[in-house]
Amino acid sequence: MFSVVQPRSKAHQQILQHFGTGILLENGEINREALGNIIFSQPEKRRLLNSITHPEILKEMLKQILKYFVLGNRYVILDIPLLFETRGLTRFMKYTVLVYCDPPAQRVRLMRRNGLDAAAADARIGAQLPLEEKRQWATHVIDNSGDRESTRRQVLRLHARLEDSLDFLWARLAAGAALAGLGGLLFLLLRHFSS
Ligand SMILES: CC(C)(COP(=O)(O)OP(=O)(O)OC[C@H]1O[C@@H](n2cnc3c(N)ncnc32)[C@H](O)[C@@H]1O)[C@@H](O)C(=O)NCCC(=O)NCCS
Ligand SMILES: Nc1ncnc2c1ncn2[C@@H]1O[C@H](COP(=O)(O)OP(=O)(O)OP(=O)(O)O)[C@@H](O)[C@H]1O
Fold this sequence. Notes:
Blueprint: H1 10-19, H2 32-39, H3 43-70, E1 97-100, H4 103-114, H5 118-126, H6 131-137, E2 140-143, H7 148-164, H8 169-194
Parallel strand pairs: 1-2
Helix pairs in contact: 1-3, 4-5
């Protein structure tokens, strides 16, 4: 999986510059546990890390959206943990989907997944808006408080709706027309210079 913080990337170099070599593993990759311990206990360090990573994440996202658009995909899903916190980004999204679960389940699952104690899990959860608040901003909510099968059914329903949508048909037609125009121009130029 592509990462904007892989060794030798711009973000990796900046993180190293600001946080020192103490946050590196022996193989040069970021030690997520060490960096996480710093940024989730010090809000100003978290803002610093965000200011390094977010522009790089945005650039990569735009590249990938363009790629999938050109490949003809109906829609692209962007998995953005801080979407609602980073105000401004939502205005570029047609729909926003919140995968919700009740707060006790959120805490238990995070502790289990990341091997955290309750205090460390609360620090991470506290670094984001509460899910109840995000619920009000999202255009769609998938409730993942129950079992995976129930979540799967909700996802399939939403997928079917998005697959049927003609939301970006105008953009596809415009891109197709522009490409056809360019192709025609190239053809005329080639014919002109080869005759
Ligand atoms: C800080 C890092 C090293 C922590 O790694 P770790 O494996 O311990 O935790 P993980 O990534 O699973 O995140 C744990 C929880 O914290 C949340 N979280 C991650 N980064 C941030 C952040 N900058 N601010 C608030 N919450 C965050 C995640 O959404 C998740 O809920 C890692 O998240 C990271 O490299 N973040 C920087 C890249 C980044 O900005 N990612 C996208 C967040 S928008
Ligand atoms: N319906 C479910 N039932 C039980 N466990 C679940 C369910 N959904 C997710 N989990 C578990 O909860 C943990 C968090 O899920 P996941 O990593 O998919 O969430 P996420 O939203 O991508 O997290 P983050 O934004 O924190 O990276 C994982 O360990 C996952 O296996």
